[in-house]
Known about the structure:
alpha+beta, Actin, Chain A, domain 4, 3 domains, six-stranded mixed β-sheet, four-stranded antiparallel β-sheet, about 30% strand, HSP70_peptide-bd_sf, non-chaperonin molecular chaperone ATPase, ATP-dependent protein folding chaperone
Amino acid sequence: MNPANTVFDVKRLIGRRYDDPTVKKDIESWPFKVVDEGSNPKVQVEYLGETKTFSPQEISAMVLGKMKEVAEVKLGKKVEKAVITVPAYFNDNQRQATKDAGAISGLNVLRIINEPTAAAIAYGLGAGKSDKERNVLIYDLGGGTFDVSLLHIQGGVFTVKATAGDTHLGGQDFDTNLLEHFKKEFQKKTKKDITGDARALRRLRTACERAKRTLSNGTQTTIEIDSLFDGEDFNANITRARFEEINSKAFQGTIQPVEQVLKDSQIEKTKVDDIVLVGGSTRIPRIQKLLSDFFNGKKLEKSINPDEAVAYGAAVQAGILSGKATSAETADMLLLDVVPLSLGVAMEGNIFAPVVPRGNTVPCLKKRTFTTVADNQQTVQFPVFQGERVNCEDNTSLGEFTLAPIPPMKAGDAVLEVVFEVDVNGILKVTATEKTSGRSANITISNSVGKLSSGEIEKMVEDAAKFKSSDEAFSKKFESRQQLESYISRVEEI
Length: 494
């Protein structure tokens, strides 16, 4: 495997700026190269003898394109539409970028839905559970992101009461913590530092991930890697208790969003009927114990497959949206999701003025009136942000738009009505109107980081088609080499 050409974790890049602190931190641990192109992070690889850069949307489109192929083979027909899930805590930029990835892969994206909401559909439709009134907490801890949602389910109506999470917490972080531990162990044993060797780091990370999985079932395991670095072999033992100690801060960090959704939904923890585990990382025993203890020893619900629940829920939603619901239960289903983070604009002094508070059911339309701050002001700028902090610098910038010209008048006389419209995908459109003169202008956010123009999307669609044939040839060559290596290995064993 070529570590510099093996791209993963792209979900942590999509819709983010290059200078985002979390992007900077991830770049330090990734073996592949991420470069800055106009404040957007791009992945740089060597492809067919050339240096090429790909946006996170293009790489996500490759994954979606592969899934499209898998579905077409399974169903025996063309797949042109899809419902795509995203972490509940994805902001507007990340949602729009994900939708763009779907378009690049040749899919008509019917809906973007939140992952824990999709999991709730999978859980709520099982065994006639949707008939009973119940409060269901979805705890979704995957490879790279973490979401908690609290839903009220009754009679096929799924109402999201609150959502919280961390778009930068998951199994990969537990692997990284283990990797750092073993890097120090190796250095202590050999006096050699593997930090700069991408291949050694990739091999060690793979071994760490395997150890993590083993420790979900057993209480100890051994890592063995021949010639890890500079001809030095590496062997080390790790117990489940030590693994839990190394990751104790990260594990404990998953409880705060649980507390947040209970607070936001104004539901006491004793009133939560079911706690549903979703995502591969929920198999870790310590995480299960922390969650159960928080709910006073309550039994956790493990009746749905944590790896498949989100895809199952998305498939049900796709069936409903395409008019192909397979049962009366799904045909009558109604999904009411929420805005995960407040949306608003920056006022004088960079103070955040929320227009759509977090927890608002989508789709929604909210208005707020603003005015001018200077006499004869004819241009008004509206920087749009998403977040919960008073200082806009601490929130996520979604872009900026300008309303001009407006009639000159005294400061404070102009009436500027700003309308925020959030669609069913959780994606935002903003309109501003100057009311005093009756002059109005419809403005939608532009220059949003991660948002692609229709021309850029079309070019990426063409590139994807162009690369497809060379990709297939490369894939066949790689498979042949793997088969040959496997054959040689079997012969050597004989």
